Amino acid sequence: MDELDAMAELLRDAVGPPPLAPGQVRAAKARVERAGHALSELPDRRVRADLWSSLFPGAPAGGANAVPGPLASSHLEWLWRRFYRPSAMSVVVVGEVPDTVIRSIFADWPTPPEPGPPPSLRPVQGGTAEVQTNAAWVGLGRAARTGESGALAAAAELVAARLRAGGIAAAEAEVWWGPGRTALVVLGSALPDAPAASPESIRATIADLAADVTADLVAEAQRTLRRRLLYQARTARGLAAVIGTFHERTGAPDGAARFLDALDRVDAKAVGRILRALVERPDAVLEIGPQ
Amino acid sequence: MTALLRAFGPTGHGARPQRREAPAGARLGRLAVRCAILALSVHTPAVAQSRIAVLEEPDGSAVAVSIALNAGTSWELDFEAGLTHLAARAIAEEVRPALDALGGRIAVECRSAATVFTLLLPPENWAQGVDRFLRALFGASVSEGAVERGRERLLRSFDARAGAFPHELNLAVTRALFGDEHRWARPVCGRADALARHDAEEVRRLMRSRFQPTRAAAAVAGPVTTAEARTVLLHALGEDVLPVLVPAPASGTGRGAIHVIRPTVTTWIGLAFPFPRDADPEALRLLAFRIREAFRPSFQRPDVFDAGATVEQHGDGGWLQVVLVTAPERAEDYANDVIALVRRAASEPLPRAEFEDLRRRYRGRRLLELETPEARARNAALQLYFEQRFRLPSESIAALTRRRLQRAAAALGRPAVAVLGPE
Predict the structure, then answer these.
(1) Of A248, A267, B202, B283, which is most buried, counting CB atoms within 10 Å of its CB?
(2) Which CATH class is domain B257-421?
(3) What is the pLDDT of residues B194-217, one digit of tens each?
(4) B398 to chain A, closest Cα gap in Å
(5) pLDDT at A193 > cutoff 90
(6) Each residue's pLDDT tens digit, B31-68
């Protein structure tokens, strides 16, 4: 139990008041800016960031576009007071620890002082760096209702496999979880001599799949997704990450279990409907050409 | 560095004159003699223990199975170099489509003393996957296509390691320990030139002779019951309590010190401290951890770029291997520091508080290494194989004492040294 106490103490320190000496703030800001600009030079990051902005307008992008504006120590302190509150936190503990012990450790979790009125923060969008790529990058995405997450995940699994089988080796299909909505996003890239990864070629591949998706294909996708999640959850860290990620996405502590239940109920009809919508009316299309 | 190499070579076995190539007939004769020596150098445990371990983990979400097989590189004749691992890879390729269909994965590891297979499967069909694998492993019916796919993967891995300093240093360390032409000083996964010559029939022949159920120790970790896991494994392995023989190297004739000259900007040092059969593996792992901590790169040691320490086992003990990557001008000092640390650890126990802190950090690191079911199954299978018993790592670590650490350090012999770097 000593280790658990030590871990809790480390966490307590981590969510405590941030170091706000001017030099520390400047150094942290420089690190974040450098990382943000470096990431925005990568084509997949740029495609993802811009698609995110199109699919979830107004939602903070994070990652590549999160280049901070002219932040001062007072801004950081306000952000800490506003967001680092126990009511905004979730704790996932995996291991042989009695529930009562866990509750006692986190019962008196420190609460920052009230934040007061927000300082005037003017977010500065990053992503101004030139993208460096020798391949054509394409991304297209379509938003959907949160309740369709199981069908979206199965559709994404099938799309990625079909695109790769069609020669677009660097193809990915993902489910994104935004505020109140989800989205199916397809990304592809191809070097000049490889099969083209254009919006048309990707749509054609998805259209073929939408036309011939079968119950067997969907069942295979369901099995693959279920196993992937269970394998990820085979370690304490992996299980905590799965539970925490789905909690964050859905707001429900049992979000991961609910997702697996939803996945079980998916049928070929629902997957076909999502695929057809993605072909006919994508909400966002992004292309980046080779320089 | 020259002084260090002089200090450690030749060893007590005496310096050996440069070998001249012997005629083919004489080489065959020598091989036959070595076969006989090897056969005599197999360690048989005094008491036959179970060779199956089951780690029941009811909350687990995957089942891992690991098989440690007495079919390592050390059994190979020179012309066979790599045949064992090719056979193992071919089996993996043979069963891969079936495992893929079940959602399973397979990994193969080549060692001098053993070949290790580790499978990861979903709980609902793990038994089916393991049964399919064990039938392939002990059935000697691998297809030519699987052999070719296995060969292709192996050759790609050889390309990747060609000229890699860690691989070259490991070879130099075992040569310093055992001698240039010793079986245990060969590349553990074989050589590309020899690998190209083996056909599918040779692979099957090797499987028939060495991939035998009686040569295996096995472990299962995951949401299974002991009864069902034993049923699945015993169906293929047969008897549970057969002693698994573990190969041991014949007497070494190592030079004790080897310098591999390379135009590098860093110097790589490998130290191999041999230990006897009755040494304490868990305490030796703790000592290795202490050495890693003491020499890892830090602000205090800006001229150390990497540090590692591992425990290598065989049927007659093994060796604790330390690898340091340092600035060339400081390499000798650091090598001597490692030796001095081992000597200090052997001469007096650590202060109690220091030992408790060390053990706690080691416990954390070790349990993190074993966080996946496949790592736990592999660890259990290797423990059964080398030590003929299994004890949970958390219990083994809890039982460690300052005296055991001291005795483990005292059991280490004079190290063989290999240096890779500039002249």
Answers:
(1) B283
(2) alpha beta
(3) 888 888 999 999 999 999 999 999
(4) 14
(5) no
(6) 333 333 333 355 554 444 689 999 999 989 999 999 99
ipTM above 0.85, yes or no: no
B371 in contact with A at a CB cutoff of 8 Å? yes
- Written as six digits, the tokens of A223 are 């099995």
Question: Is B373 at the interface with chain A, CB within 8 A?
Answer: yes
The pLDDT value recorded for residue A170 is 77
Check the CA dihedral B124-B130-B133-B135 and report its sign. negative
- Token code pair at residue B55: 């780690």
pLDDT in tens, B367-388: 999 999 999 999 999 999 999 8
Cis peptide bond upstream of A117, omega within 30: no
Angstrom distance (rounded) from CA B208 to CA B202: 10
Per CATH, B47-247 and B257-421 having the same topology is answered yes
Token code pair at residue B203: 């692979």
CB atoms within 10 A of CB B263: 7
Burial of B268 (0-12, 13-18, 19+ CB in 10 A): buried
Q: What is the Cα–Cα distance from A254 to B211, expressed in whole angstroms?
A: 46
> Which of A234, A237, A239, A243 to substitute to test the interface with B, most B CBs within 10 Å?
A234
Domains and CATH numbers, chain A: 2-107 (no CATH), 136-288 (3.30.830.10)
